[in-house]
UniProtKB/TrEMBL annotation:
Region entry Disordered, spans: 176-198
Protein name in UniProt: PLC-beta PH domain-containing protein
Phosphoinositide phospholipase C beta 1-4-like EF-hand domain boundaries: 148-173
Domain PLC-beta PH: 29-141
Pfam families, A to Z: PH_14, PLCB1-4-like_EFh
Organism: Spermophilus dauricus (Daurian ground squirrel)
Comp. bias (Low complexity): 179-190
InterPro entries linked to this entry: PLC-beta_PH (IPR037862), PLCB1-4-like_EFh (IPR053945)
Coiled coil: none
Amino acid sequence: MCPSPQPAPGWPLPLPKVEHYIFPGSRLETAVASPVILRVDPKGYYLYWTYQSKEMEFLDITSIRDTRFGKFAKIPKSQKLRDVFNMDFPDNHFLLKTLTVVSGPDMVDLTFHNFVSYKENVGKDWAEDVLALAKHPLTTNAPRSTFLDKILVKLKMQLTPEGKIPVKNVCHLAKGKVSSSPPAAHSPNSHSHERTTWLRMMESGTV
């Protein structure tokens, strides 16, 4: 019998720590500032923001390529937004409130998500902690079970007023994840296995 391989020094790595704080502020569009609350879910899977209408947008932590704050963050070019934040005044501290999250499938096709907080220096902590999550080895080398857990976490964060998971959300996620999970989980020949696991979890009431 071959001896069991010994774990590398320092393994297992500690799980990424998710700080429990929120980022109340605004998301900067091309020429519009929309009030939002920015959060990270407790397991560190998603960076997401909630609008005043309760609509939510999600950004997978694994898609984040960079975070920027202060003078390195992107600032609005629209004169309308510059006027809203008094950016042309000499004593303005707008840069101390900024946060830019850069995401994309690679380092070429990038999207810049720009936020501004109500308080100064909040973006610094967010930029450092979110990037630490995105670059953590356990984030990019997760086990297969993590991919299913990420689906469940996202579903549970989008409940109806009655506390139920909308069927349309289940269908939307299952449609894409059932076919894409096996390759992403390094298991190219396990389509039926992944589908069976997903259905069993739903039938057992895990969702």
